[in-house]
Amino acid sequence: MLFNSIDFAIxxxxxxxxxxxxxxxxxxxxxLLIVIASYVFxxxxxxxxxxxxxxxxxxxxxxxxxxxxxxxxxxRKLLLWTSILVNLGFLGFFKYYNFFLDxxxxxxxxxxxxxxxxxxNIILPVGISFYTFQTLSYSIDVYRYKLEPxxxxxxxxxFVSFFPQLVAGPIERATNLLPQFYKKRxxxxxxxxxxxRQILWGLFKKMVIADNCAVVVNTIFDNHQDYSGSTxxxxxxxxxxxxxxxFSGYSDIAIGTARLxxxxxxxxxxxPYFSRDIAEFWRRxxxxxxxxxxxxLYIPLGGSRGxxxxxxxxxxxxxxxxxxxxxxxxxxxxxxALNAIYFLPLLLTNKNRHHLEVVAQDRCLxxxxxxxxxxxxxxxxxxxxxxxxxxxxxxxxxxxxxIFNRSLFSIPEIRxxxxxxxxxxxxxxxxxxxxxxxxxxxxxxxxKRPIRLAFYYGLIIIIFWFSRNEQTFIYFQF
Length: 478
What we know:
With 478 residues, the chain is an all-alpha fold.
């Protein structure tokens, strides 16, 4: 079920009403309703894959239970590795089986040996990359004694399948989200209004910015050989805004929806395109994934401690694994490696923690130095996005080759004026709200009520005016 669909527009008020008016006096019933609603939400796409969520839930609940009873270090480690292998095994089979098979065949063909192995027509379950990491966080944290294993199977099932963030995050830690299912939730009007405001902003990002940028991006990337270098740059820039609007828009809707039900999810994006270097960008982009890899992979490998060679190794591992997490394609691996190359000089010169505060914290506009750093960081990020968007490595290099010629300085052949105006509005609102959790969190609080309502209704009108029919979210394929 898509957030930007009529189905969800009907589904959400029904679940909301049942949650607060029919089950509000019984915590277990509320949690059970969340489980049922989440299974309906996920099964709307393909009910066959509900069995994977149920199995993953059973495995990690059972492992957590036995970890709580076991004190023997080797047996605890065996239980942990069982969870890791089961979860990553499912993820590897559905997401990477054909990728490894095709590369295995290609490797042997280089030596003149032809291998005839049949690939499988595997459907990638929506959200599998997200909920497997979420359940893994539970098993790992219980193993590390950071979390007491739960005895409430319904609460744990709700934690694993919580529908607002089930299929595209944020990837919640068990230490943050699971305890919220143990506590009685009381309806707060201010939280509900804040949730609706964040949902509205998320829909604007997705349906107005991302979906309209996608039209230009698809045209340019699919026919890159026909366009000038300046037009290709336009396509790459528009994709940068498409993927940001699409993914952060989903996160805003997810966080806002969770707020309607009395839950607080972590911030997943913190205005990353206002970053002044790549290190700051990765502290602000897909925060739930980057911090997951930091805590469960980078730090256990040694992090930034040790010799320079080990630090370089660790950085490349975390970025390449992050790229590979996104999909079974060499383009994602190159995208990850390129970001590692961007990041390493900052880490090795101890400049990776220079920009921890919000840009222009106490000013209306950034300094010239900050502005130039923002432009440079955005340019490097956009270059890397070309690999992310391309169908294969050859496509990416041909696209980049098409940029760097004399036509780079010509006027773009595609001039989408309406979208450019919307992007200017979007960037302005994002800049104005950069100190908040999302752009319009506090925008207009000092305005008179009619003006504030006119602003919100104006966003709604723009959404309906520029929306396109139920476009899927990019990260559904990951």
